[in-house]
Write a structure and sequence with these properties.
Elements (H helix, E strand, L loop, with lengths): L3 H13 L5 H8 L3 H13 L3 E7 L5 E7 L1 H45 L1
Helix pairs in contact: 1-4, 2-3
């Protein structure tokens, strides 16, 4: 399944490194090669990526994955959603840390009274 987070990561990595092959992308994202291929094909099908192929020096076809204008727009939208979600997660963690800190201080005071 192509989640928003995975779509964001793929678009971000490929925007910065369009010449990565699928195996390198899979390694970078820590996902399987098959899942990488599925995701790339889905993004191409949605018009977010295009593939430029050319001959490399070993007489093989090499590929470059380029974000389309729609892909750049989608990446911008995903960036905003990703940032909003991470900020919400941060606030929740911050609150939990504050509560744990208060609890540990109280526990420490109670154990000293014994």
């Amino acid at each position: 399944m192509l989640t928003d987070e995975l779509r964001f990561k793929i678009l971000k990595v490929l925007q910065d490194n369009p010449d990565l092959n699928q195996r390198q992308l899979a390694d970078h994202l820590n996902i399987s090669l098959g899942k990488t291929n599925y995701c790339i094909q889905a993004l191409i099908g949605k018009g977010l990526l295009k593939v430029k192929n050319f001959k490399n020096n070993r007489n093989k076809l090499a590929y470059s994955y380029l974000l389309t204008p729609g892909g750049m727009e989608e990446k911008a939208k995903l960036t905003i959603r990703f940032l909003k979600r991470k900020m919400e997660e941060y606030e929740i963690l911050k609150t939990e840390i504050e509560e744990l800190t208060r609890d540990s201080v109280q526990y420490g005071q109670m154990s000293q009274k014994k």
